């Protein structure tokens, strides 16, 4: 397959996936529907049986993010950065990808990069997300049958690979380094996203911030897990603005985490603790907050905060803010809308993969 054939296949896959952004949107002219539409619809609705975090809304949200990226213009703009690096008539390398399972289809970007770069994909799925990507791969193979020899999923020990991409916690990263250190590799660790508030945000902006906090129940590395606020910031307007997300506590797993953390903090009589019955706010210097909890910290001036964030950049995935002085910030509500060029941990996956050949 040449690069044009690979891109065309993913564009067609994007058109198929676009039908599942919302329930009941079916394109009658899509030829793939006869084989896959009903089964994929059922999988989206039932996958929560295997992982209660993967609600139908969250799965559809993940699919919407993928389908919006898989259009011809975005794919070609992305690949234009690498057009002079692609080589013809090279042997594909086998790339083992160890995937996380915190968010539906979280490993899709690696799947896309490996295949578009002309390499072979060997996927080791998380037990928390082992159904969605294999189904999507089956659709892709139907679109372009040559992909069949380029895609493999394995539950056993990884072997016969030329390179590795592995995503996990800081603890598992040490094991990845030990086992995969002899191969060319990308090994990703824990990262969290933050929001920097000025105190002048509108209600609408704070509602959008609610999406950055609560989408996927806060389980993603692009979910805001900590706020930086000015000294003497009053949280009333923040709590009022995010009230529409109160139904998050109706999910049993979220509710159990929220109740457990509230009990722990109340037992410690933490004076900084704030509560609105579905989200705890706690003053803490850490970036990684538990489910149902949002850490916060105060700052005095933006310049000093910028310096700190630069120094601690290896812990931060995404910054959300409307303060122009905050470097590399995205707008409220956009944390979960990365482009194809927003690589996890800031490591250019495509550049790494092209270098293998």
Please tag this protein with its features:
2 domains; five-stranded parallel sheet; 12 helices; Aldehyde Dehydrogenase, Chain A, domain 2; Aldehyde Dehydrogenase, Chain A, domain 1; 357 residues; seven-stranded mixed sheet; alpha/beta
Per-chain topology:
Layout: H1 3-18, H2 33-46, H3 56-69, H4 72-79, E1 94-98, H5 108-116, E2 120-124, H6 132-143, E3 151-153, E4 163-167, H7 170-180, E5 185-188, E6 192-196, H8 203-214, E7 224-230, H9 236-241, H10 252-267, E8 274-275, E9 280-283, E10 293-299, H11 302-311, E11 316-320, E12 329-330, H12 349-356
Parallel strand pairs: 1-2, 1-4, 2-3, 4-5, 6-7, 6-11, 7-10, 9-10, 11-12
Antiparallel strand pairs: 8-9
Can you tell me about this structure?
- The structure is a single chain.
- 38% of the residues lie in helices and 15% in strands.
- By secondary structure, it is α/β, with parallel strands linked by helices.
- The chain folds into two domains: 3-189, Aldehyde Dehydrogenase, Chain A, domain 1 (3-Layer(aba) Sandwich); 192-330, Aldehyde Dehydrogenase, Chain A, domain 2, CATH 3.40.309.
- The model has no long low-confidence stretch (mean pLDDT 95).
